[in-house]
Design a protein that fits this description.
157 residues, alpha+beta, CBS-domain, three-stranded mixed sheet, two-stranded antiparallel ribbon, 32% helix
Length: 157
């Protein structure tokens, strides 16, 4: 079975200049955990996940500076303070750009299983031979496909 048989083709993607606020609205309204980041030609330039957002929005903890026996203490940052200056920033400041794993639509189901098990990703962008995003597969898509198309259709399993 090929990846193209179970990938999601109605891909929700964003641009690098999308604000963090817009990204959060997309993730919540579509109930998804991440999106590919594409350029104007729909070429993959990065990915951003809910985990990236959580790590970025984490308030800074209290910091102690020792400058020649003069101690300066910065107060712990609050989430509301962090949100005030972070929400309008572009996703480009926190998106992953390197070591992004992708898969081709012609790859086999086993290839997708190997990628998910080795790298522990939730979603993997599906690219064509021009590096254009044409789909996305998630762990849930993979498990649904295995259950519906293999287990439930084969009564011997």
């Amino acid at each position: 079975m090929k990846v193209k048989e179970f990938m999601i083709t109605d891909v929700i993607s964003i641009k690098e200049n999308t604000s963090i606020k817009e990204l959060l609205e997309i993730l919540v309204s579509y109930r998804i955990g991440g999106v590919p980041v594409v350029d104007s030609n729909n070429k993959l330039v990065g990915v951003v996940s809910d985990g990236d957002v959580i790590r970025y929005l984490k308030p800074n903890s209290q910091t102690v500076f020792d400058m020649f026996s003069i101690v300066m203490v910065s107060e712990p940052e609050k989430l509301t303070d962090k949100l005030q200056y972070a929400l309008e920033k572009p996703v480009s400041i926190m998106m992953k750009r390197k070591d992004i794993k992708t898969i081709d639509a012609e790859c086999e189901l086993d290839d997708a299983l190997r990628l998910f098990s080795k790298y522990h990703f939730k979603k993997i962008p599906v690219l064509d031979n021009t590096e254009t995003v044409i789909g996305v597969i998630s762990r849930g898509d993979l498990l649904r496909h295995i259950t519906n198309e293999i287990i439930l259709r084969d009564n011997s399993l």
